[in-house]
Amino acid sequence: MDASDWNARYDTSELIWKGEPNQFLPLEVADLTPGSAVDLACGEGRNAVWLAKQGWTVTGVDFSSVGVEKGRKLATENGVEATWVVADATSWEPPSAGFDLVAVFYLQLPAVERRASMHTAVRSLAIGGTLVLVGHDLLNLTEGHGGPQDPTFLLTAEDIVDDLTAAEVSLDVELVIEKSERVDRVVATEDGERTAIDTLVRVRRVA
Prior knowledge:
Elements: H1 3-10, H2 24-29, E1 36-40, H3 46-53, E2 57-62, H4 65-77, E3 83-86, E4 99-105, H5 111-123, E5 125-136, H6 140-143, H7 157-171, E6 175-189, E7 192-205
Helix pairs in contact: 1-4, 5-7
């Protein structure tokens, strides 16, 4: 899906996703001191707004102008401020100072574009900064609930670690992998709770 496809999907009066953050985000940032953060491929901005409410200075980036506008509205409704940028995660130029936190949640791209987005994510990290990525795991296609049904847009923790390693070499930085795992996510449906299978990777830039 390109920007126009996502613009069409987000062109609703209500949020496509609930206004609450992804269930993994609070857990993964609980031990971090709020600083600067970027929500890369922020969609409708729910994670960016939640981070702003926790005291982070947040930038939300997405190539969907409709999604970004909904994020801006959500921030206003929650009484917080954030910087909103319409840009592609595969080519966005982050500020040279970088961010203390880079969040990438459910960015659905084929392998080549995904690797480019991970390059952007690593470039966005300040030294000492943390990158948290959550995505639809490949196993979800056969054993989980929901998510993309095209394996082109699914991933594994190994895929992301490989992408990050390539970015590490290219950018001459040093990363420490803190988590690289498959995780279950409970999804409420009309037929009861179902389990989706996600990939979660957390890394810290040390140099």
